[in-house]
Write a structure and sequence with these properties.
The protein is α+β, with helices and mostly antiparallel strands. It contains 8 helices and 9 strands. Helix 6 packs across helix 7. The protein is globular and about 50 Å long.
């Protein structure tokens, strides 16, 4: 089979397989010499940063089913944009973070899941600083200070992304991915992080927030702020969230109520 034929067949297979099959295609290596063993010996996951004794319990997530918007309209409207200033409430932040409670299809090992580490700037009821989200207990374990000015100057390269209420850093256990899947581990980690990013887009759009995904940050600096070693875990991507979106004239239907 030629390279062109291989690419065509791979694309067709990915298009016709369910999500689990797509994940398996992304992780399977074509090259035997770089394919990992079927049952690699993974070390025990290292402890995660954050003070569990001072963890802050978040309010229960908002029931998104009550929002009068169809899934089709949410999917059509989701897009990155300019962040609005203004504080969020703890329930809204908790609803966003709860998007991480679900797991990507095809990942049998939960220790490979991406994690959310929010850096909070302006959320009512949540102290500013870096936190680790504990999805099992739905709470935030504080890590340390992360002032907005410092993050904008040293960590967040797209400075406008530090003007919102919080930046949710997607952290992946990159070391475990590489041990488990060899040269395709990085691709698998990206697949899992992208899956979670898409969920954040849908939830943020449903809540009427301003938001944008971003890779514009200095990973080594962010890892230091989040208490990560950059080897077992590293900040892989980020999702910046601002205040609620103010509808434009095109989004306000007759009667004056935003859709």
């Amino acid at each position: 089979m030629s390279l062109a034929e291989h690419r065509i067949s791979s694309t067709l297979a990915a298009a016709t397989q369910p999500l689990r099959g797509v994940a398996e295609l992304a992780l399977a290596s074509r090259y035997p010499e770089t394919r990992p063993s079927p049952e690699p010996a993974l070390p025990a996951p290292p402890p995660l940063p954050g003070d569990a004794e001072r963890a802050l319990s978040l309010p229960a997530p908002r029931a998104l089913e009550s929002v009068q918007r169809s899934l089709a309209s949410v999917i059509a409207a989701r897009r990155s944009g300019r962040l609005s200033t203004g504080a969020l409430d703890a329930t809204t932040l908790g609803t966003l973070l709860a998007a991480a409670a679900a797991r990507p299809a095809g990942l049998a090992d939960p220790t490979l899941d991406p994690l959310l580490f929010p850096v909070v700037f302006d959320v009512d009821g949540v102290p500013p600083g870096a936190h680790r989200y504990d999805r099992g207990e739905h709470r935030l374990a504080p890590i340390g200070p992360a002032p907005r000015a410092r993050m904008a100057e040293t960590a967040i390269l797209q400075h406008e992304h530090a003007t919102g209420a919080a930046v949710l850093f997607l952290v992946v256990p990159i070391g475990r991915w590489l041990v488990a899947f060899g040269d395709r581990g990085y691709r698998g980690a990206a697949f899992a992080a992208g899956w979670l990013t898409d969920r954040l887009y849908l939830v943020a759009e449903t809540l009427g927030l301003t938001y944008t995904a971003t890779g514009g940050f200095a990973p080594a600096v962010v890892d230091e702020v989040l208490g990560l070693d950059g080897r077992d875990h590293t900040a892989f991507f980020a999702f910046a969230v601002g205040g609620h979106r103010h509808p434009t004239s095109r989004e306000v239907p007759r009667g004056g109520q935003p859709r």
